[in-house]
Amino acid sequence: MNLGTETGSVFNHLMSNGKQPEPKVGDGATVLMWTDRKAATIIKVTPKTITVRLDKATRTDTNGMSESQSYTYEADPEGQEFVFRLTKKGWRSEGRGLLIGHRQQYHDFSF
Questions:
Q1: Could you tell me the end-to-end alpha-carbon distance of the chain, in angstroms, rounded to an integer?
Q2: What is the span of the domain harbouring residue 80?
Q3: How many domains does the chain fold into?
Q4: What is the pLDDT of residue 6?
Q5: S-S: 7 plus which of 11, 12, 68, 100, CB 3.0-4.6 Å?
Q6: Among residues 50, 76, 67, 49, which one has the least CA distance to residue 107?
């Protein structure tokens, strides 16, 4: 993801541009947005696409509107699905990036 045009987060920029493991159905993933991140599970893989479904993320800390957030995750059969295509810039879907192999939820309260 290009910093300033596809993401407003240095962290999301770095996560989207690193080396990624081979995707497998059932692996965790993180959908990288402008500054937020959404935990997901890979539900389908083809040579040029990855389909993920958002997980149910339940906040477990008591830090309020804080940068320090922790969550538990569980599969959500009703979760929103995204199809990511492999591009020269990595896995992309309508301006979103994808991190494979790691689930992370983060809400940026400044927006």
A1: 19
A2: 10-100
A3: 1
A4: 60
A5: 12
A6: 67
Helix (H, G, I), strand (E, B) or coil at 105: coil
DSSP string for residues in 1-39: --BTTTBS-HHHHHHHTS--PPP-TT-EEEEE-SS-EEE
How many helices (H) and strands (E) the chain has is answered by 1, 8
46 occurs within a structural domain: yes
Confirm whether 74 is domain-assigned. Answer: yes
Give the mean pLDDT per block of 10 residues along the chain (111 residues).
56 63 95 91 96 97 91 96 90 89 91 70
pLDDT at 12: 56
Say if 110 falls within a structural domain.
no
Position 111 in a domain: no
